[in-house]
């Protein structure tokens, strides 16, 4: 990783923090962002940088983050889109969106597009989108991405966000490959971190004895992300979804539906006001 510049989102704790520390130890210049200043500060200190605070439930924070990254770096070799989680759908974001949709998809979609100049300037670069086997619970309804005409339930809404991560990965692969940008999605496994802390139900499960035998450690969960970052912009991974270290993990059929790939990209661009 020596000589490479990396941005890790969702780096306040869990696999994001672990990934940031590991890549810095391997020689990368690592920048970290998260919503908790108190949690992010020691991670930033460990990797030798200043923390970048941003809350993905606020799209203006995402825009400000992209501007700050642009001030720091001219090129970006690896973008680790790791921020996300599962959220109660009733708690709309500041921008008025269903939170699983905005935080898991819309915010990283906006950030990645705003950082396209830095990714392209690297010559060859990699975007890693942290997805989940939970994508199998998801269903993308292009005419109702924000659940305005149907009721949102937490787990299916989370799964839909994770399905969107794979679809977005394919959208990047199809649109930006001529710029040298490679994209890949990955399920890190059932990590025993603070995942789900914003969800009463998931948080309850993660605080129960279930966590001890049903989850893997944070270092084990970060390992697939680290491996992909080290592999770099390999055309062999472009547009693929990894279940930990195994390519072509189980996914919903929609993930390879061209109408869904194009439709999600275009509707997301309109929602975040990108041309």
Automatic annotation (TrEMBL):
Domain of life, source organism: Bacteria
UniProt-recorded name of the protein: SDR family oxidoreductase
Signal sequence, start to end: none
Upper classification of the organism: Bacteria, Bacillati, Actinomycetota, Actinomycetes, Propionibacteriales
UniProt entry tagged with the keyword Oxidoreductase: yes
Classification via PANTHER family: PHOSPHATIDYLINOSITOL-GLYCAN BIOSYNTHESIS CLASS F PROTEIN, PHOSPHATIDYLINOSITOL-GLYCAN BIOSYNTHESIS CLASS F PROTEIN-RELATED
Pfam families: adh_short
Organism the protein comes from: Nocardioides endophyticus
InterPro entries assigned: NAD(P)-bd_dom_sf, SDR_fam
Keyword annotations: Oxidoreductase
Keyword Oxidoreductase carried by entry: yes
């Amino acid at each position: 990783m020596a000589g490479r510049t990396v941005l890790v989102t969702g780096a306040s704790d869990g696999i994001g923090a672990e990934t940031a520390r590991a890549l810095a130890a391997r020689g990368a210049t690592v920048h970290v962002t998260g919503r908790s200043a108190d949690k992010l500060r020691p991670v930033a200190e460990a990797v030798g940088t200043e923390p970048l605070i941003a809350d993905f439930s606020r799209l203006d924070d995402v825009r400000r983050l992209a501007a700050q990254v642009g001030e720091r770096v001219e090129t970006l070799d690896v973008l680790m889109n790791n921020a996300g989680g599962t959220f109660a759908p009733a708690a709309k974001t500041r921008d008025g969106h269903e939170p699983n949709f905005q935080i898991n998809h819309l915010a990283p979609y906006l950030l990645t597009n705003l950082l396209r100049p830095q990714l392209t300037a690297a010559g060859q670069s990699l975007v890693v989108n942290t997805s989940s086997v939970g994508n199998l619970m998801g269903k993308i309804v292009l005419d109702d991405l924000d659940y305005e005409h149907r009721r949102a339930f937490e787990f299916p809404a989370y799964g839909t966000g994770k399905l969107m991560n794979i679809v977005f990965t394919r959208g990047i692969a199809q649109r930006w490959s001529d710029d040298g940008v490679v994209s890949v999605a990955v399920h890190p496994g059932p990590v025993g971190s603070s995942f789900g802390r914003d969800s009463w139900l998931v948080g309850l499960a993660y605080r129960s004895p279930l966590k001890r035998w049903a989850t893997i450690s944070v270092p084990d969960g970060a390992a697939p992300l680290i491996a992909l970052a080290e592999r770099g912009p390999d055309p062999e991974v472009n547009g693929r979804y990894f279940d930990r270290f195994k390519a072509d993990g189980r996914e919903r059929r929609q993930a390879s539906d061209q109408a869904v790939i194009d439709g999600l990209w275009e509707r997301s661009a309109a929602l975040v006001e990108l041309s």
